[in-house]
Design goal:
- The complex is a heterodimer of chains A (148) and B (728).
- With 148 residues, chain A is an alpha/beta fold.
- Chain A has a single domain, classed as Response regulator (Rossmann fold, 3-Layer(aba) Sandwich), CATH 3.40.50.
- Chain A is 44% helix and 13% strand.
- The N and C termini of chain A lie close together (7 Å).
- Classes of the chains: A alpha/beta (148), B alpha/beta (728).
- Chains A and B meet through helix 3 and helix 4 of A and helix 1, strand 13 and helix 17 of B.
Amino acid sequence: MEKVLVVCVGNICRSPVGERVLQKMAPGLSVSSAGIAALEGHAADETAERVARDNDISLAGHAGRQFTFDLGSQADLILVMEKGHKAHITRKFPELSGKTMLFDQWAKAEDIPDPFKRLQDFHEAVFDRIFAAASAWAKKLTPKGATK
Amino acid sequence: MSQQNSRTQAPVADDEIDLLQLMKSLWAGKWTILGCTLLIGCIGTIVALNTPPTYQADALLQLEDNKANLSVPTALTELSGEVPQSTTEIEILKSRLVIGQAVSNLNLDWQAGPTFAPGLGYLLTRLPFELPDYEFLRPYATGGEKLRLDLLRVPPEWLDEDIWLKVLPDQTFSLSLPNDQELQGTVGEIVSDTEHDFAIRVGEMEGDAGKVFKVSQIPESKAVANVRSNLSVSEKGRNSGILELRFTAGSHETAQSTLHAISQTYVAQNVRRSAAEAQKSLEFVESQLPIARKKVEAAEDELNRFKQSEATVDLGLETETLLTQISLLDNELRRLQVEELELKERYTPNHPVYAQLLDNKNLIQQRIEQLREETVDLPQIQRDVIALTRALEVDQDSYLQMLRRAQELRVLQASSLGHIRIVDQAQSKSLPVAPRKSRVLGLALILGIVIGTAIVLLRNALRRGVRSSAQLEEVGLPVFATINRSKIEERAGRSKGARSILAISDPTDLAVEAFRSLRTSLHFGMLDASSKSVAITSPAPTAGKSFISTNFAVVAAQSGQRVCLIDGDMRRGRLYKFFGAKKNDAGLADILAGDTPLEDAKVATKVDGLEFIPCGKYPPNPADLLARPDFKDLLKDLNSQFDLVIVDCPPVLAVTDASIIAQHTGVSLLVARFDETPVGEVEAVLRTFENDGLSFTGAILNGFDPKKLIGGREYSFQNYRYDYKSRE
C-alpha cells in the first residue's frame, strides 16, 4: 500500500483535511485527494483551512481535483467520506469498488458529514472525526505499507 | 478521463446471443412445455368429449311477388297484401307469433331428459365400455336413455319446477312432484293428480331401473326464448329474397322437426295474412245476405197479396217499359250502394274512386226521379203494381249480387298462396356442428405450448442472477470486487488447450484493474485472518473461479507478494492449462496421497513470486484426501513459505470439498456471476457454510456487464450543495 486517494465531493473541505492529516500520520505513504464533483483548481475552504491550521495542519497549496478512473486506478486504496460516495464509485467504475473503503472504516464506520458553509464549530467537530479516522487508518496501513 | 471515454465507446452488439440464449432456455424447459401441452391437450379432449353434440338443421325460403298468378278479378288483387321485405320477414320469423305457434305445436315447453353425473356427466354416456354398477352412478345417464312424453299438464305454480321420474322395472315408474308427493305410473297410461291439475302420460321410456329423468314444463315465454336463441335467419345475398334458416339442437331429429314446424307455421301465417282482407269482406257480405233475403221474401209477399185482392191486373206496354227502366236503374243503384259499402271500409269519400262512385249514384237517382214522375199519370192500380214489382225485382237483384260477391271472395280466399315459398325443406346434417373435436384439440395444444413457453420464460425471468453488488450485500456478503465481463477472457475460455492469463496478456484490461482492487480489499479483509490462505469457491460451476484465482494470483505476485496458487478441484481442475502443465502432472492429489513431495509438485511460473500446484491425477476420493490431516499440514507449510496462498475450490452446491478446504484456510471468498448466479443459490451456499460453522469473508461479482443494466449507468453525482458563484 503506497498510494492512497482521499475522496469527498468538492475536494475543498473534508478530503484535503483527510489527505494532509493522513499524510502527516503515515509519512511513508503517498496521499492525495480528489472530489467526485470537484471544484477544480480551487484552494481549500477558508474555515476548514483555519480549523486545520489551529491543529497544526496546513492546507496550503491545495487545488481541487476531479476524481477520474485513472486517478482511482493509480491509487492502491481509495478512502471516501460517505457510503454514498462508495456507491457512486461502484456504480460508475465497478472495477474500483474493491479498493474503495470508508475513511471512517476503522473508527466508527460511519459517514463523515460535509461541513461546507457550516459554522466553525461544525468544522471543528468534523476535523476531530477525520483526525480519529485517519489515526485508525494509519495504524492499519503503517506496518504493512512500510514493508511492501 | 481518456480511460473513461474509451469505456463508454466500447461496442457491444450481441443480439444474436440473446436469441440463442432464448432457444437454450426454451430447450432447457422442454419438459415443462411438453407437460403443459399434454395437460391442456388432455383437458381440451375431455372438454370436447364432455360437451353434448349440437346438430344443425337448415331450410331455405323464398319471398316472392305472386300477385300475377292469382286467378281472381283484378279488382280484388289489391286485397291480397304487399310484397314482403326481407328484414321485416326475418323479424316476423323470430316473433312470438311464429315461434310460439311452433312451440305449442311441438310441445317444446315440455322438457324431459336423463340426468347426468356432476362434472363429467356427459362423458359417461360415450364410454366405449360398460361402467361397473356403482350405487352412486345408478341414477345417471350411461347412454341410450330415452323418455318421450305424450302428455304433460302442470298447474301454473309448478311451471319451471323439476319433476323427477325414476325408472322402475316392467315399464313402470315413480314420480316425485314439486310438492314432495310421490306417484306411481305405467308407460302409456295417464297419471294424474286432479287436486293439483297435474297429468302426465309417458309414451316411451328406455333405461335401466334406477335411472332418473328430469321432467319439467317451462313457461312458454322461456321456451320461445330458447328456440329463438338457437334460431338464426339471414338473407342470402342482398335483396335476393332468399332467407336461410338455421336451427341448432341436441339431436338432429329435434333440430329438423323444430325448424320444419317453424317454417310451416311461418308460411301458414303468411297465407292467413294474405287472405285476411278477403276474409274481412266476405264476413261483411255474409252478414248482409240474410237481410237481403228477408227483403226479397217480404216484397214477394206484398206483391202476391196485392194481386189476390185486386184480381188480374193488366199492364200496358208503356207501363211495362217504364217499369223495366226503373227496375234496371234501381238495380244499378243497388249495385253501387253495395260497392259503396265496401269502399267505405277502405277509402274516405275524398278518394277519387269513391267520389266517382258517388257521382254515378247521383246521376242514377236523378234519372229514377224523372221516371217516377212519369208514372204519376198511370192509373192507381197499375202504379201500385209497378211499385211492388219494381221493389221485388230490386231486392232480388241485390240479393243475387251479394251471393255472387260472396262466392268470388271465397274463391280469392281459397286461392291465396301467400308470398312465401319453401325452397328447401328443413333438413339436418347427420354430423354435429359442435363441438369440433379436432379444432378444440388443436387449439388446446397450441394453448398448451403457449402457456408452457410462457411459464418457462417467466420462470427464467424470475430466476435472474445477481444483478448488483447491493444484492450480495443484502444477504450479508461484503463485495470485495466487481469484475467486468472480459471479452478476451470469454473467447479464451471457450478454446481448448493452453489458456492465457488476462493479467499477463492484457494488463490494461479493466478486469485487471478490478483484481488490483480485490487485492486491496482482501488485504484489509485478511488483517484479522488466522492464516494467509484464501479459498475461492462459488455456488455452481462456471462462475469464473479459475479465472479469478489465476488472475488474482498473478496480480498479487506482480505487486511483489510471494503467492502460491493451488488447484483444489481434484475432480475437474483445469488450472494446469494456464501454466503450461499437463493433465496428469503430479499435484495436490499426489501430495495428499503421499506419492509426491511438495517440492516436486510445485510448478514455477513465468511470473516472479508465483508458484503453482496443479490438482494432480484425479483421485477417486477427493473429499477423503482433503479431510486427511495432510492437507492441514500442507497449508501450514505453505503459509510459512508464502505471503498469500490461493486455493481454487470446486463449487459448494455440487460437492463438499470446498467446505473441507475452507475449514483450513484463513478466509473464503464466494464468486457469483453477474446475471447468472441466482441470489437463492448464494443464500444456499451461505447456509451450507453456516451449518459447517464456516463463513464467507466476502464475495466477488464476476462478469459484470453494465450494458445489461437498464438505466442507472448514466448516473452523475449532483453537486447541488456547492454553489460555485457564491464563492466569487
